[in-house]
Design goal:
The chain is an alpha/beta fold and 209 residues long. The chain is 43% helix and 15% strand. It is built from seven helices and six strands, in the order αβαβαβαβαββαα. It has helices at 8-17, 35-50, 68-80, 100-118, 130-141, 173-182, 199-208, and strands spanning 26-31, 54-61, 85-90, 123-125, 156-159, 162-165.
């Protein structure tokens, strides 16, 4: 069956299953510039208008690639073309030589949750999708003695008084690609998504075989 884009009505149903929101909510979105987070940006933009709320976005520039600053600025321009607030948060200081993805993820959460606290934001949306969920399950299940070996990504989690929400965990990435295409929205491909030195990339390629 041909994949179809995720549109507003279906997205709103996904959010309703995750619980209710206060009147005129102020929400945040973590943006990578990939098709997943930009599809989520478009869907949240339409949803927040109905709720008479405000959406703010955060991009983390990890400084791990030569073009990361330019990529962050490109994504910022896309967001601001929708008249949506966007801040670029930068990971400063020396970078580790090993377990880079793990440290980068932890620093990303740290920077964004601190920004949410600073701006009194209760809800932080992330663009993880079904493919991410399956890959996380496979990665954890391969680790001997891992207590979370048979768990996947939670759709809602609270951290530092921030409600972290992942509404797309049952949606395949292909549908998010179609969503961006439906809205004529270009996205940025992170080259690390194709680098087999990272475990997630190896798991992804193995899963496709």
């Amino acid at each position: 069956m041909k994949e179809k884009p995720l549109l507003s009505d279906e997205f709103e149903s996904l959010l309703n299953k995750l619980g209710s929101f206060e009147s005129n909510p102020v929400i945040a979105l973590s943006l990578s510039g990939g098709c997943d987070s930009l599809a989520l940006l478009y869907l949240l933009k339409e949803w927040i208008l109905k709720k008479n709320g405000i959406i703010k976005t955060f991009i983390v520039d990890h400084g791990l690639r030569q073009n990361s600053k330019n990529e962050a600025m490109k994504v910022k321009k896309i967001v601001e073309s929708y008249n949506i607030s966007c801040r670029i948060l930068r990971w400063l200081g020396p970078k580790p030589r090993t377990r880079i993805m793990e440290y980068a993820r932890n620093e990303r959460y740290k920077l964004i949750t601190e920004a949410c606290i600073e701006e009194n934001i209760l809800h932080l949306f992330l663009g993880h999708h079904l493919n991410d969920n399956i890959e996380t399950f496979l990665m954890r299940s391969q680790r001997k003695g891992h207590k979370n070996g048979l768990s996947s990504i939670p759709s809602i989690r609270e951290q530092n008084s921030i409600r972290i929400i992942r509404p797309l965990l049952d949606i395949e990435k292909n549908r998010l690609v179609k969503t961006c295409e439906f809205h004529n929205q270009k996205w940025i491909e992170d080259p690390s998504n194709f680098d087999e030195k990272f475990e997630r990339v190896r798991v992804r390629k193995k899963k496709k075989k």
